[in-house]
C-alpha cells in the first residue's frame, strides 16, 4: 500500500545531482559547493556547554523547551528586529525546533484545512524554492502553486500579479528572505503587504528567515518587525535557526515564533509527533543566541569570500553580490551540462538551478539557466574552486 500523493515530488535536488554526475570521474580533487552546509568554525565553548549538560540526556526534553532557551530567543528577536518590549513573550510566542526544516515541514499540518473556498487549498511557494516547502504542501493534500521569482520580478514573487481567486483558496504562503538561492532581501513594504494579504484572505505567512544573519549591508528586515506596524502577530510565523547564523547545522537547533494561537496549536500537535531538541542542545543554543561576537566574525568570513568571487568572476555569468545568504547564483545557460563539465574537468560539485525550481505553467523552469554554488568553505578553498570554475567555463 503506497500513498501516491508523494509521487509528484520526485527525487530531492541532491539525489538528482548525484544521478547526473554518477559515473563521471572528477578531474581534480573534489570541492563540494552544492550543499548549503557551513564549514566555518563555531565557538569552542559549544562543546563545553553540551558536556556540562550531559546529565540531561537521561531525560526526555520538555515539550515547550525550557525558560532559559525561550528567553534567549525572545531577547534576541526583540533586539535584532527592534521589536517593542512585550511583543514576543517567551512562554507564548516561541516553539523550539530541531532546525527550521522540521518546523517548515510540520507547520502546514495545523494550518491547511481539507477545503478552502470550497476547493483544494493552495500553498504558495516562490520558484525557485527550498524543497521542504513543496514536501510540506503535498503532505497535507494542498496544491503547491509555484510563483516565479526571476530577475524580472526582482527574484521575489510579484504580489500584485496574484489574483483574488487564488488568494481565496490559499492556506499558507512561504517566503524566504534572504532568499535561497538568489540572496534577495525583501523590503519592509513588501513584507507589510504580504501580512496585509494574509489577513485579508486568511492564510498564514510562513517566513523562512534562516539566512537573516548572513548579509552584506544593513541587517535584513524581518516579518515580525513588519508585523509591529499592526501591533499584532496574527497569521504570521517566522522560522530561524543556528545552522547558518552560528555554522552549526549538525546541532539541529531552531525555533518558530509568531501568532500565539498557532503556536499553542503547534505545541499540542508536537506532543503527538514532534522532534524535540534535547536539553543539552537547548543549553548550547541559548548561549549561541546570546552571543553576537561569533556572528559578526562569521559574517565577515562570507564578505571576504564574496570579495574573492567578485575578483575572480567579475561581471561574467550575470554575477551580482547578493544582499544576503551565501550562494552564488550564476547564469550559465545549460546548467545541467555545465554542472557535469565542472565535475568532470574541475572536480567542482555545484547544483543545477533547475533542481531547486519547477516548471511554472506556460513558463520555462526559472532556475534552469543557473548554477548554485554555496560559499561555505574557507578562503583558500573558495579561491581554488572559483579559479578552477573560471578557467573551465567559457566567458
Ligand atoms: C532556505 C532554507 N530553509 C531552511 C533550511 C533548513 O535549515 P535548518 O533546518 O538547518 O535550519 C535551509 C538549509 O539549507 C535552507 O536553505
What general outline do the C-alpha atoms trace? globular
Question: Helical proportion?
Answer: 25-40%
- Report the top-level CATH class of the largest domain: Alpha Beta
* End-to-end Cα distance: 52 Å
Residue-averaged pLDDT: 96
* Low-confidence runs: none
Number of strands: 12
Strand content of the residues, in percent? 5-15%
Hetero groups: pyridoxal-5'-phosphate
The CATH topology label of the largest domain is Aspartate Aminotransferase, domain 2
Structural class: alpha/beta
What is the level-2 CATH architecture name of the largest domain?
Answer: 3-Layer(aba) Sandwich
Oligomer: single chain
Order of adjacent strands in the largest pleated sheet: 2-8-7-6-5-3-4
Q: How would you describe this structure to a colleague?
A:
The protein has helices at about 15-20, 45-50, 65-80, 100-105, 110, 130-140, 165-170, 190-200, 225, 240-245, 260-275, 280-290, 295-315, 335-345, 380-390, and strands at about 30, 95, 120-125, 145-150, 170-175, 205-210, 235-240, 255-260, 325-330, 350, 350, 370-375. The chain is an alpha/beta fold and about 400 residues long. The strands form three sheets. A seven-stranded mixed β-sheet has the order 2-8-7-6-5-3-4, sandwiched between helices. The longest helix has 21 residues, at about 295-315. It is globular and about 55 Å long. About 50% of the residues are buried. Bound molecules: pyridoxal-5'-phosphate. The site of pyridoxal-5'-phosphate has 13 residues, from helix 4.
Salient structural properties:
seven-stranded mixed sheet; 14% strand; binds pyridoxal-5'-phosphate; 2 domains; globular; alpha/beta; 15 helices; 395 residues; Aspartate Aminotransferase, domain 2; Aspartate Aminotransferase, domain 1; single chain; three-stranded antiparallel sheet
Amino acid at each position: 500500500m503506497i500513498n501516491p500523493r508523494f509521487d509528484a515530488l520526485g527525487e530531492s535536488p541532491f539525489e538528482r545531482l548525484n544521478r547526473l554526475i554518477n559515473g563521471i570521474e572528477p578531474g581534480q580533487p573534489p570541492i563540494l559547493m552544492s550543499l548549503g552546509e557551513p564549514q566555518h568554525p563555531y565557538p569552542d565553548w559549544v562543546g563545553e556547554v553540551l558536556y556540562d549538560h550531559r546529565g540531561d540526556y537521561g531525560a526526555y526534553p520538555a515539550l515547550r523547551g525550557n525558560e532559559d532557551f525561550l528567553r534567549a530567543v525572545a531577547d534576541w528577536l526583540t533586539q535584532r528586529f527592534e521589536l517593542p518590549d512585550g511583543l514576543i513573550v517567551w512562554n507564548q510566542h516561541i516553539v523550539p525546533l530541531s532546525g527550521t526544516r522540521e518546523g517548515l515541514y510540520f507547520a502546514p499540518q495545523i494550518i491547511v484545512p481539507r477545503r478552502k473556498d470550497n476547493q483544494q487549498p493552495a500553498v504558495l511557494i516562490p520558484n525557485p524554492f527550498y524543497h521542504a516547502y513543496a514536501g510540506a504542501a503535498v503532505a497535507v493534500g494542498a496544491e503547491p502553486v509555484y510563483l516565479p521569482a526571476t530577475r524580472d520580478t526582482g527574484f521575489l514573487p510579484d504580489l500584485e500579479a496574484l489574483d483574488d481567486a487564488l488568494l481565496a483558496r490559499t492556506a499558507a504562503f512561504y517566503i524566504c528572505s534572504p532568499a535561497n538561492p538568489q540572496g534577495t532581501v525583501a523590503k519592509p513594504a513588501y513584507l507589510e503587504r504580504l501580512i496585509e494579504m494574509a489577513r485579508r484572505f486568511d492564510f498564514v505567512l510562513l517566513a523562512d528567515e534562516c539566512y537573516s544573519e548572513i548579509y552584506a549591508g544593513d541587517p535584513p528586515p524581518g516579518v515580525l518587525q513588519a508585523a509591529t506596524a499592526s501591533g499584532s502577530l496574527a497569521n504570521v510565523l517566522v522560522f530561524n535557526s543556528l545552522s547558518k547564523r552560528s555554522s552549526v547545522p549538525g546541532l539541529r537547533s531552531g525555533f518558530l515564533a509568531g501568532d500565539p494561537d498557532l503556536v499553542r496549536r503547534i505545541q499540542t500537535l508536537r506532543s503527538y509527533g514532534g522532534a524535540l531538541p534535547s536539553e543539552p542542545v537547548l543549553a548550547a543554543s541559548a548561549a549561541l543566541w546570546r552571543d553576537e561576537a561569533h556572528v559578526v566574525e562569521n559574517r565577515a568570513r562570507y564578505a571576504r569570500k564574496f570579495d574573492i568571487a567578485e575578483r575572480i568572476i567579475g561581471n561574467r555569468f550575470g554575477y551580482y553580490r547578493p544582499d544576503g545568504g551565501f550562494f552564488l547564483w550564476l547564469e550559465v545557460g545549460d546548467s545541467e551540462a555545465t554542472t557535469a563539465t565542472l565535475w568532470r574537468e574541475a572536480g567542482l560539485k555545484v547544483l543545477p538551478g533547475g533542481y531547486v525550481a519547477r516548471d511554472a505553467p506556460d513558463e520555462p523552469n526559472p532556475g534552469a539557466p543557473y548554477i548554485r554554488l554555496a560559499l561555505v568553505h574557507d578562503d583558500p578553498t573558495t579561491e581554488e574552486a572559483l579559479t578552477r570554475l573560471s578557467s573551465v567555463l567559457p566567458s
